[in-house]
Specification:
Elements (H helix, E strand, L loop, with lengths): L8 H14 L6 H13 L1 H20 L9 H14 L5 H4 L3 H11 L2 H7 L4 E2 L6 E4 L5 E4 L4 E6 L4 E7 L1 E5 L8 E5 L2 E15 L2 E15 L4 E5 L2 E5 L8 E2 L11 E8 H9 L5 E4 L7 E7 L3 H11 L2 E7 L2 E6 L5
Parallel strand pairs: 5-7, 14-17
Antiparallel strand pairs: 1-4, 2-3, 3-6, 4-5, 6-8, 7-8, 8-9, 9-10, 9-11, 11-12, 13-15, 16-17
């Protein structure tokens, strides 16, 4: 069978509701029979149930650290414990096969991130923002789930962005260019303040002061001035577009959005949270304006609920979803 597709929002919410009921003291034999019938009714139901169980196990490990965000090292150890305890989900869930296992790992554990970043010089965990003073006096801010490698020598000051997003304020040193490397290309700072973010097979650059020179792996080249942003891949550089200071507001602990789809904002909020944050497709296109704290995403969700026709459904400590506002009739 091919790759398992992601369960629908509806199936995930049903699975979470069943999970909450079966883990409570209120479930009886009839409830368990109805749950088994629901599980048997569709492969998607079993896939959704497996995802809920996986998120539960992962979240439980995070609660063992004094700070739920922890450090990357703590998350590595926590993930090891999860993998050691992980067992087959049972005969009903097992039929989903390897596709489900891969999807669960990708969606609900930090293993891929930690595998790539274990040897990084600096890193942050989910929800953590960190400021680093570099040896030359430059400063770099690491956004959530970010990792960098530092390589300073007599000729260059180089940072490699392994994962995530950084904001850099460079110190002057004409004899040693400041360089940021990503898998897609090389950025040379021209006396500047700028952000770089990795997004899958591309990287994004926003220049807030000065200018930055881009050279991609394939040889494409451009200089991006202050107030402009672009995306680049191994093969080329996208046309420049306007940027603004809101794109570095995360370094101050806030997200500033203007006319953004709720779906896009939720994608951003997921970067700063552990556990599941679901969104009903029926409200994904609502437009959002405002400033929102990223060090307290629950407060952000409550702010959204007070401004939009939505409600926040908290079924479990680690399972939150955004739903349409209930009818008042």
């Amino acid at each position: 069978m091919g790759h398992a597709s992601e369960p629908s929002h509806e199936s995930l919410e049903q699975a979470a509701e069943w999970y909450a009921l079966l883990r409570s003291e209120e479930a009886d034999a009839g409830d368990r029979e109805r749950w088994q019938a629901w599980m048997a009714a569709a492969v998607e139901h079993r896939r959704a149930w497996g995802y809920v169980e996986s998120v539960s196990r992962h979240f439980a490990t995070l609660q063992t650290t004094p700070d739920p965000r922890g450090t990357a090292e703590e998350l590595w150890k926590a993930n090891d414990r999860v993998m050691q305890r992980r067992r087959a989900l049972g005969s009903l869930v097992a039929v989903v096969g390897i596709g489900l296992a891969g999807w669960l790992t990708w969606r609900s554990t930090p293993l891929p991130y930690l595998t790539r970043t274990r040897n990084a010089d600096y890193r942050t965990a989910t929800g953590e923002i960190r400021e680093i003073a570099l040896p030359d006096g430059s400063r770099v801010w690491l956004n959530t789930a970010t990792a960098i490698h530092e390589a300073y020598d007599a000729r260059y000051r180089t940072l490699s962005l392994i994962e995530g997003e950084i904001l850099i304020d460079t110190a002057s040193d004409p004899s040693r260019p400041f360089v940021v490397e990503t898998p897609q290309g090389r950025l040379r700072a021209l006396g500047t303040r700028f952000t770089v973010r990795r997004r899958g097979e591309s990287s994004e650059l926003s220049v807030h002061a000065g200018a930055v020179e881009i050279a991609t792996q394939s040889g494409a080249w451009n200089v991006v001035p202050a107030g402009r942003r672009t995306r680049f891949t191994h093969d080329g550089i996208a046309p420049l577009a306007p940027t603004d200071s809101a794109r570095e507001a995360w370094s101050r602990g806030v997200l500033i959005v203007e006319d953004m789809r709720l779906g896009e904002l939720v994608e951003e909020l997921r970067r700063y949270r552990s556990g599941h944050l679901g969104l009903s497709p029926t409200v994904a296109d609502l437009k959002v304006f405002g400033s929102f704290p990223i060090d307290d995403t629950d407060a952000t969700l409550d702010m959204l609920a007070s401004a939009l026709p939505i409600r926040i459904q908290r079924r479990l400590p680690w399972w939150v979803s955004i739903e349409p506002q209930a009818d008042s009739d």
